[in-house]
Amino acid sequence: MLRIGFVGAGNIAQALTRGFIAAGLTKGQKIIASDPFPQIIKNFELLGTQTSSENRVVMEQSDIVFLTVKPENIPAVLSSIRPHVYKRHLLLSTVMGVSIQDIEQTLPPATRVMRVMTNTPVLVRNGASVFVCGSSVQSEDEAITRQLLEAVGTCDKVPESLVDTITALSGSGPAYVYIIIEALADGAVRMGVPRDLAYRLAAQTVLGAGSMVLTTKTHPAQLKDNVTSPAGSTAEGLHFLEQHGLRTALIGAIEAATQRCKQINKEAKEQTSNGCSRN
Fold first, then answer.
1. β-pairing, 127-133 with 153-157?
2. Among 7-16, 39-48, 73-82, 265-274, where is mean pLDDT lowest?
3. What is the three-class DSSP state of 112?
4. What is the reaction catalyzed (predicted)?
5. Are 100 and 132 spatial neighbours (Cβ–Cβ below 8 Å)?
6. Is residue 30 domain-shared with residue 137, that is, in the same domain?
7. pLDDT the model gives residue 107
8. C-alpha 65: how far from its chain's center?
9. Residue 154 has pLDDT above 60, yes or no
10. Among 36-40, 65-69, 244-248, 265-269, which is the least confidently predicted range?
11. Number of structural domains in the chain
């Protein structure tokens, strides 16, 4: 079984861990995480894993290491693990705004680095993930990365230039969908449906619609037309949504989130350069 480590034991590390264990890729005893915050460590231990307050220990006990920390912490993290990176290690970074080049130039030559963008639905093995290959990765590294990410959802290989927009879509997207589910349920409650039932029906409706797109491979517009009868209730609802700019708002949300990602990238790059130069 794979020996997996996490430098940073927050939400995404915990979600990936639950997914990997549920998929049978590894066992809790084969996973170790480090984090400076005792409460986060405690939450991770509840998954049946090993923990440590030292990043060094994670490197020593793992072959595959996820860097799951905040961008502002990456200079200190890279400095702490640099003396403990060996040829056996495959590093997968989920750190927003930190490019593969930023990581590679800080670690020993020929370090195998992958950049991964994933989202919290990996917890229920329905994540939407992408990955970018570093300059020193081998074909088997890509195969392992696919094995890990496909065990907890879908995954695609992409150029690094797309990561910001994909982060805005898939990384932030669950938050947009949760608001849509809540709003759909609120509308049903307003019209007399009990709240528990409204939430359940709204969530299942979103899940079913997404499954239809993925399974049938039919264009969403065609699927929309298939349930829109002339002068019917769906047509009336769609007209209301168009009047109030739902489509424009969602497109704008992706654009705004992408621009914020780019801004964070710029700030992270400056901080990484400054932090690494001090080290």
1. parallel
2. 265-274
3. strand
4. L-proline + NADP(+) = (S)-1-pyrroline-5-carboxylate + NADPH + 2 H(+); L-proline + NAD(+) = (S)-1-pyrroline-5-carboxylate + NADH + 2 H(+)
5. yes
6. yes
7. 96
8. 16
9. yes
10. 265-269
11. 2
Q: Residue 114 pairs with which residues in a beta bridge?
A: 92, 133
| Residues 100, 209 within the same domain | no
Q: Is residue 27 part of a domain?
A: yes
Where does a domain end: 159, 189, 214? Answer: 159
**CA gap 269, 163 in Å, rounded:** 15
- Say what the pLDDT of residue 267 is: 81
**Amino acid identity at 175:** A
| Side chain identity, residue 213 | V
The DSSP bridge partners found for residue 64 are: 4, 90
Q: pLDDT > 90: what percent of the chain?
A: 87
55 is in an annotated binding site: yes
177 plus 137 within the same structural domain: no
- In angstroms, the CA 62 to CA 111 distance is 15
Smallest Cα–Cα separation from 3: which of 88, 64, 85, 90?
Answer: 64
Strands (E), the chain: 4-7, 31-34, 50-52, 64-67, 90-93, 112-117, 127-133, 153-157
- Number of other residues whose CB lies within 10 A of the CB of residue 42: 12
Band (pLDDT 50/70/90 cuts) for residue 195 is very high
How many of the other CB atoms lie within 10 Å of CB of 181? 19
